[in-house]
Amino acid sequence: MVVSDHAPMGERSLDVAWFRHELEQEREFRLEQLISLSYDVEVPCSAPLAEVRATLTAGARRALAEIDAALFRLARGTFGGCERCGRRIPAHRLAAIPTTRLCLRCERSQTHHDT
Predict the structure, then answer these.
(1) Is the full-model pTM beyond 0.70?
(2) Average pLDDT for consecutive 10-residue bins of the chain (115 residues)?
(3) Which residues contact 109 (CB under 8 A, 6 or more apart)?
(4) Within its chain, how far is the Cα of 92 from the centroid?
(5) What angle do CA 64, 103, 99 make, to 5 degrees?
């Protein structure tokens, strides 16, 4: 369940327990991925394969950092708020990308500024 109907005055709020569970599951997966990749490093391989391993390791570390940041926002009570404008990020966006820090408007604005 992404939203909870148990909020005061009929106001629907994010189901924090559901998001925490999903993020912890993803965190466990990324940790297992990093452990597996670290064992693979011990096996000699070609330069292209070593590059792929390095790229996968870097991606898993970035994902793990984003997951940890989202879990921290959950603990602080700021999960689901856009870090740029402060607006509430829609539950469907958070369900698709639980580590997102920005609402769609701010993300699009940031993308346009980066190009």
Answers:
(1) yes
(2) 44 82 97 90 81 94 98 96 95 94 94 67
(3) 84
(4) 14
(5) 15
